[in-house]
Here is the input.
Amino acid sequence: FEICGYGGMLCIVGAYAAVSFGWLAAESFTYQMVNLVGSIGNITYYRYKRAYSGEILDGVWALVALVALIRLISIYI
Here is the structure.
């Protein structure tokens, strides 16, 4: 579970840094996917630790990423 938490944190912070430094576009599939995977990792860790405020935060984060991914996929289909 610790690996999920650290991995999730690295995914989200790494994605944010990549967008901030211009390495990725915020509208890219990669950015949204990394955010989704990172938030799922964090949710897994928070559930294990029973840290519900973090779980809610990352649940919203995952929902935003999922909606953005659906929008991106619908544009290209």
Observations:
- The chain is about 85% helix and 0% strand.
- The longest helix spans residues 52-76.
- The chain has a mean pLDDT of 93.
